[in-house]
Design goal:
heterodimer, A: 249 residues, Rossmann fold, 6-stranded mixed beta sheet, 37% helix, globular, B: 113 residues, alpha+beta, 4-stranded mixed beta sheet
Chain lengths: 249, 113
């Protein structure tokens, strides 16, 4: 790992750079870095990185619940670029325990976090413990949560007192339109689900198509809006009483 | 235990605990840690004077469940993360899933990886 590197300074310097330049800096400063590829339009990261270095590490999280189209696309990427795409699987014991106790669709009742924790976050944490930096396709225009994501940051989620992990988000300042322009201009392969109206692509049971101008968040975990509020500790406001039919008359 | 631990759980309109409170209670039970919880109080959003709602307001906590840990000197610490309570106060080992779940809940940007 690159030592004595000031992450804040690096972030300031890279903030206005184009994605290829940010990738170049990431790969030069952190030879032991890895690209996280979701099986969607972040394919542009893989395409860009391979123009800089041929021996990049790329991984995807195989939750076991992806669309068949996504699995086909992962294989297409592997063949098209001739790379070793590492697929990370959930811990079988943890997964079997979840399915045994709660079934295959517990996320519709209990929320998606527990299932995501087992199928995505735990394998991701395991992988990130072995590298010094990771490169993601996070963009400001994807969700409100991502609106302020910097192009370089210390990863506070996965760093430990013994191991600092750096996170590069080279596409942070790009719009969806710019990403698709790159895909078209460079004949980059893409997930066929995008042709069917999918914007954000995740697991099959938790993803749906969105209408034009709908935020991409509308296509993921759409059932949770109300259900997830039930742990908030805010005083309930009684509903205003409606006039009875007799009073209206 | 040399500390006194209060668990504040929320109840819904039908009297059942909220989803997260139920899950945490089940985990305490499953891990044999329930014995370390000295007192469980209820927060009823329909009643701002319920003990749990008063404690939530006093400690400025906005989500259930949470824990109030009082040491021998009467100092109180608030834990709104079950994982932190489990590790730091109950001195218990957290499972891989519990650690991952805590990360998923604290870092919503991980939703879209």
């Amino acid at each position: 790992m690159s030592t004595n590197l000031n992450i804040e300074q690096l972030a300031t310097h890279q903030e206005q750079n184009d994605p290829v330049e940010i990738l170049r800096v990431a790969l030069e400063h952190f030879p032991n870095s890895v690209i996280s590829f979701s099986g969607a339009e972040d394919i542009v990261l893989v395409d860009m990185a391979l123009r800089i270095r041929k021996d990049i590490q790329v991984f995807s999280l195989d939750t076991g619940r992806l669309h068949p189209e996504t699995y086909r696309f992962l294989e297409e990427v592997r063949n098209h670029y001739g790379i070793q795409l590492e697929l990370l699987s959930p811990d079988s014991r943890e997964l079997e325990q979840l399915v045994r106790t709660k079934g295959l669709f517990s996320f519709y009742q209990d929320g998606h976090k527990e299932c995501c924790a087992i199928r995505k976050v735990a394998p991701l944490r395991r992988k990130l413990a072995t590298v010094d930096a990771w490169i993601t396709g996070l963009r400001h225009d994807q969700t409100p949560v991502r609106a302020s994501v910097p192009v370089v940051q210390e990863d506070t989620a996965f760093s430990t007192p013994e191991h600092t992990l750096v996170k590069f988000n080279p596409l942070a300042n790009w719009s969806s339109a710019q990403v698709w322009e790159y895909i078209r201009d460079n004949n980059v392969p893409f997930n066929e689900l995008h042709r069917s109206g999918y914007i954000s692509i995740g697991c099959e049971p938790c993803t749906r198509t969105t209408l034009p101008n709908q935020h991409e968040r509308a296509g993921r975990w759409w059932w949770e809006e109300e259900a997830m509020k039930d742990c908030g500790l805010h005083v309930a406001t009684p509903e205003p009483s409606r006039p009875k039919p007799a009073e209206v008359a | 235990m040399t500390t006194h631990i209060i668990m504040v759980k929320k109840i819904l309109a039908d009297g059942a605990p909220c989803r997260k409170c139920r899950e945490v209670y089940e985990r305490l039970q499953r891990d044999g840690l329930l014995q370390h919880i000295d007192h469980i109080v209820t927060a009823d959003p329909r009643n701002p004077d319920s003990e749990g709602m008063r404690l939530a307001a006093r400690h400025q906590v906005s989500r259930a469940p949470f824990f109030i840990v009082r040491d021998k000197g009467g100092n109180e610490r608030i834990y709104d993360s079950f994982l932190r309570l489990k590790r730091e106060v109950l001195q218990a080992r957290a499972s891989t899933t519990e650690v991952a779940l805590d990360l998923a809940e604290r870092f919503p940007e991980l939703d879209y990886i």
